TrEMBL record:
<feature type="modified residue" description="4-aspartylphosphate">
    <location>
        <position position="56"/>
    </location>
</feature>
<dbReference type="InterPro" id="IPR011006">
    <property type="entry name" value="CheY-like_superfamily"/>
</dbReference>
<feature type="compositionally biased region" description="Basic and acidic residues">
    <location>
        <begin position="138"/>
        <end position="160"/>
    </location>
</feature>
<dbReference type="InterPro" id="IPR001789">
    <property type="entry name" value="Sig_transdc_resp-reg_receiver"/>
</dbReference>
<feature type="compositionally biased region" description="Gly residues">
    <location>
        <begin position="128"/>
        <end position="137"/>
    </location>
</feature>
<keyword id="KW-0597">Phosphoprotein</keyword>
<feature type="domain" description="Response regulatory">
    <location>
        <begin position="7"/>
        <end position="122"/>
    </location>
</feature>
<dbReference type="GO" id="GO:0000160">
    <property type="term" value="P:phosphorelay signal transduction system"/>
</dbReference>
<dbReference type="Pfam" id="PF00072">
    <property type="entry name" value="Response_reg"/>
</dbReference>
<protein>
    <submittedName>
        <fullName>Response regulator</fullName>
    </submittedName>
</protein>
<feature type="region of interest" description="Disordered">
    <location>
        <begin position="126"/>
        <end position="195"/>
    </location>
</feature>
<dbReference type="InterPro" id="IPR050595">
    <property type="entry name" value="Bact_response_regulator"/>
</dbReference>
Length: 195
C-alpha cells in the first residue's frame, strides 16, 4: 500500500553510517534491519523480507554491486527495489545499472534525501510502478546534469538514466570525502561525474 511504513534492509560496513541511516528511517516510522556487508545481507534477506535494500558499494567479503547482482539473480528477491548509497565512480554507476540497481544516493547526503528516496521506492513497489522485472523495468527519462535534477534531490533514480556526480578514491569513506570538490551531487536525471 503506497504511503504505508515499510521494512528496510540497510547494508553498509561502516557502523556509523548504518546507525545514521537507521535513525533517520526509524524517525519516519520505517522498520530497519542492518547488515555489515553483502554476504550478511544474503544470509538474512529471506528471513527479513524487506521492502527495499540499501547497499554501500565498497564492503568486505561481498561488495554492493555483486550483492545487487545476486539479489537480482534470485527469483525470491529479483523484484526488491535496490538503492546504492555510496560515493560512486562512473564505472560503478554503469555496473549498478547493468545489474539492476534502481536508484543511487551520493554520500554525503541530507537525511531528507535519504528518506524521500526510500519512501519513493517503497511507494513505487507498492503501487506496481517501481522496481524491476514486473515493477516497471528500466525506464529512461530525460533530466538535466548536475545538482538539482528532479525536485532538486542529491539522488539518482536509475529508471531515469544517467549517473551521479562525484567519484570515489580509495574506497567509500562515508565521511563526506567522496571526491566531490564542490559538493555537487547526483540528481535523479542524467548527470556525469564532475572533476
Amino acid at each position: 500500500m503506497p504511503g504505508a511504513p515499510g521494512r528496510v534492509l540497510v547494508v553498509d560496513d561502516n557502523k556509523v553510517i548504518r546507525q545514521l541511516i537507521r535513525v533517520n528511517l526509524e524517525l519516519e516510522g520505517l522498520e530497519v534491519v542492518t547488515a555489515a556487508d553483502g554476504a550478511e545481507c544474503l544470509d538474512v534477506v529471506h528471513q527479513v523480507q524487506p521492502d527495499i535494500v540499501t547497499l554501500d558499494v565498497v564492503m568486505p567479503r561481498l561488495d554492493g554491486l555483486r550483492t545487487a547482482a545476486r539479489l537480482r539473480a534470485d527469483p525470491r528477491t529479483r523484484h526488491l527495489p535496490l538503492a546504492i548509497i555510496s560515493a560512486c565512480t562512473q564505472y560503478e554507476v554503469e555496473t549498478g545499472l547493468d545489474v539492476g540497481v534502481d536508484a543511487f544516493l551520493a554520500k554525503p547526503f541530507e537525511p531528507a534525501e535519504l528518506v524521500q528516496l526510500v519512501k519513493h521506492l517503497i511507494d513505487r513497489r507498492g503501487s506496481g510502478h517501481g522496481g524491476r522485472g514486473g515493477y516497471g523495468g528500466h525506464e529512461a527519462r530525460e533530466g538535466r546534469a548536475g545538482h538539482g535534477g528532479r525536485e532538486g534531490h542529491g539522488s539518482h533514480d536509475s529508471r531515469e538514466g544517467g549517473a551521479p556526480g562525484g567519484g570515489e578514491e580509495g574506497g567509500d569513506r562515508g565521511d563526506g570525502g567522496d571526491g566531490e570538490a564542490d559538493g555537487d551531487r547526483a540528481s535523479w536525471g542524467p548527470s556525469l561525474p564532475r572533476r
